[in-house]
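Following up on my earlier message about guanosine-5'-monophosphate. Here are the inputs again, as you asked, copied directly from the submission form:
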Amino acid sequence: MAERRIVPEVDRAAAAQRALERRRARASLKRDLSTRVVSPQEVLRRAVEDADSDAGTMRITDFLIALPAIGAGKRDRILEELRISPVKRLGGLGVRQIADLSHWLDERFPIPEPRAGRSRLLVLAGPTAVGKGTVAAHIRKTHPEIHLSVSATTRAPRPGEIDGVHYYFVDDAEFDRLIADGELLEYAVVHNKHRYGTPRGPVDAALAEGKTVLLEIDLQGARQVRAAEPSATLIFLLPPSWDELVHRLVGRGTEDAEERARRLRTAKAELAAQYEFDYRIVNEDVARAAQEVVDLSAASPR
Ligand code: 5GP
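Thanks, got it. Here's what our run produced:
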């Protein structure tokens, strides 16, 4: 009779708990891949670095199917083409397989090189609730030499918001006038609701004084700035994970369910646009993310 190993109940429970946590972590990583919070190249890098990590223990089949626009049929063709067995885990790939997979990823999901040179005009954008405002506020406190643009908006002030500090709160007629008089560098309707725009005058004046200027605006606005000022440095703020972004969105508690769902849809679409940006910064720690933004300005040495 085969020997039966007696595993104490507590150990078994602990092992089951660990296995459950690993599965949850991998599921979360798959959501990050499908929402593009993390690039597939980064997940492969983590897997190669540590075969026992969440990335390393992910099945190649799960990895591929989590990628945007890859279905089961396509996944199987890719595996055949790359000569990788579907039972493999990312951390268990051979050297040739890693090289082939990484080449395929670079072709299919290219990560553009940031444009050469640095501008004093920095644009910080990113999905809703990622914490752009908090990072910008931190920069305002710690780097008063950087000019933080104050936007005009048609939305009503929230408690504690001061006109001229957080926003210029204007009515529709005044916003129309700003547009008509060409006083806005960019403007957009955000979340299908209110209009927001960057007054051009203060930005031009600060740049003329040799200052670094930071705009904290939405994706549509960032695109307009790119078109108007091609040399601007565009920075995209990423959440540490999709689950964390959802948590921040719900945690803020300022929107109702319908509004939250709409913001999540917007966030997904916004994440998909991150590769239009020169740099991506992960907002895991506000002070660190803020410093990384400052380090990208032309004023700071490379
Ligand atoms: P909130 O109403 O929560 O302060 O801001 C909502 C969104 O409007 C944020 O994503 C913020 O980045 C964006 N936003 C703020 N100011 C501007 C602006 O001047 N232009 C554009 N395009 N978006 C802005």
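One observation from looking it over: The beta strands are 121-125, 147-148, 151-153, 167-169, 184-190, 194-199, 213-216, 233-238, 279-282. Hope that helps, and feel free to reply on this thread.
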